[in-house]
Structure formats: structure tokens, C-alpha cells
Amino acid sequence: MSPSEVRAWLDRHGLAPHRSRGQNFLVDERLAVKLVGLAGVEPGDTVIEVGTGLGLLTRALAERAARVVSIEIDAGLVRALREDACLPANVELVHGDALEIDLAACAAAAPGPVRVVANLPYAVATPLLRRLLDLRAALTGWSVMVQREVAERVAAGSGGPDYGSLAVLHAWCVDVEKGLDLHPRCFHPVPRVFSRFLRITPRPGEGLSPGELARLEPWLRGAFAHRRKTLRAALRIAGAPEPAPLLAELGLAEHARPAELAPDAWLQLARRLAEDRGVPESSLA
Predict the structure, then answer these.
(1) Please, what's the b/e burial string for 56-80 (b: 16 or more CB within 10 A of its CB; e: otherwise)?
(2) Residue 243, preceding bond cis, omega within 30 degrees?
């Protein structure tokens, strides 16, 4: 769709992109088809799409998948898509917030493999990425377009400026594959940043017990909130009474910074902290 066609369609329905919702609609139809291929969508799949937008990616998904459940928070877009019958018969358009909808129930109701494919709104990309980690057992995988800076935080290695709790959580249980960088002109309105397409696949036998990710996460977040401090100081601020003996026991330098620990070391440390001290007090405030 050309920019003029997009504007005309939106104007006809009295709509405009909401900056507060991070709405930047994909408008390149050939790119939509390419992304569906990169996502690995198979004919028997059910695809959960977050953010229907103008429906370009939705239609490309529907051509490949058995069924598409497309979630759109904008009531005006839902109304316009339904009025113009923009979507194929194998698409279920759901008006709702993907942060509140029971995605696990959606996945459980599907007869075959389930994956998520989405152009995630910039404003909610990080919490949605985190939520998808909790759904990993129910999903074949998920492929998402996110702001390039967010993508770099997801896939960052230890020691770098982008390495933080989000990267560690992903490293513990999924494989992250960079797919494609997308120019701002692929979207309307044109954002000021580049986007990146990521394909994320749950890692079989990753060894985390049910609910363990949520139990360990507060220690990660507490320490990385003070990433410029030493590991000992950051953990004390996060709620560990005196972490020095534990760090020595695990062979970790107390004067290292939180970002210097590799994901495996963080898993070992966070497990011991959760076992010995439970949930950090800072996470209960």
C-alpha cells in the first residue's frame, strides 16, 4: 500500500495512528510475505498475531497458516477491518489488549502447532516479549518486529552496554535469531528508528522448572538496576544481606559488575539467592 492509499483508507474511517500506542503500520505487502517465510509458518499452524494494524501481515499469514488469531487493541481499526471485510475467512479478529488476553488459553485451544508472529508496538514490546517467555512451553516459537534497540537488548552478550536482565532471561530458555533489519519507510507513519525482525525458538530441555523464571527474575532486575555498582553492592541493595560469602563459594568476583556475569553464572547465582533468601525485599516494595 502506498502512503496515500493508507491515509485515504484511514481518513475514510475517521482514523489516525496513535503515537501513545506506538502504532506504525506495516505497508509493504511483499515484505509481509517475506516475513511470513522467515518466521517459518507451516500450513498446519495456528498463528497468534499481536497488532493487526492494516491487515497486511495478517493476510500474508492467512495464506500460509491454517488459522490466524489476530489481536488488535484499537477499536476503530477493528471496526474498519470488519466493515470492509479486509481479512480472509480463516482469520479470527479479536478486539483486546495482548497484555491482558489469556494467550495460554488461545494456544491451548488450537488443534495444531501454535506460533506468534507480530509487529509489536514500540510502547509495549518489552513486556510482551517477557510474557512470551512464560508461554514458551505452549508455542513452537515467535517471530517479532521490534525497535532495533530493543532487539539488541534481547540478544546482547555479557559485558556489553545492552546486556541486562532481558538478555539473561532469553539466554536461559530460548534461541534468538536475527532475521532482517527493516527500514522506517516500510511503515506508516514513518518512525524515526529502524526495526528488526527476530525469530525466537524455545530451547528443548532448558532445565528451568515451572515458575522458576519468575522466581529468579527479581534478583536479576534488582542487580541490573544498579549495573554501575559492584556485584556485591548491587546485590546488597537488591536485598541480599551479605552476598560476599555466596559469591566466594560460587567463584564469582565480588567486585565484578552485574553485566560481566554470563547467563550461566547468573542462573547459578540467582538460584542460590532464591533458595537461600526467597524474593528480594526490593521487589515487594
Answers:
(1) bbbbbbbebbbbbbbbbbbeebbeb
(2) no
Of 263, 282, 153, nearest in space to 222 by CA: 282
Strands (E), the chain: 25-26, 46-50, 67-72, 91-95, 114-119, 141-147, 174-182, 187-188, 195-202
- Which residue, among 129, 140, 75, has the nearest Cα to 107 in the 3D structure? 140
CA dist., res. 46 & res. 69, Å (int) = 8
- How far apart CA 35 and CA 51 sit, in angstroms, is 15
β-strands 195-202, 141-147: how paired?
antiparallel
**Integer Cα distance of 240 and 20 in angstroms:** 38
pLDDT along the chain (285 residues), means of 10: 90 90 90 97 97 96 98 97 97 96 95 95 91 96 96 96 97 95 94 96 92 96 96 94 94 96 97 84 53
Give the CATH superfamily of 3-202. Vaccinia Virus protein VP39 (3.40.50.150)
Taking domain 212-279, whether its CATH number is 1.10.8.100 is answered by yes
Q: How far is CA 70 from the centre of its chain?
A: 16
What are 204's strand-pairing partners?
none
* Cell numbers for 80: 474498519
How far is residue 118 from each of residues 14, 206, 215, measured CA to CA in Å?
A: 25, 25, 28
Three-state secondary structure call for residue 28: coil
CATH 1.10.8.100: which residues of the chain? 212-279
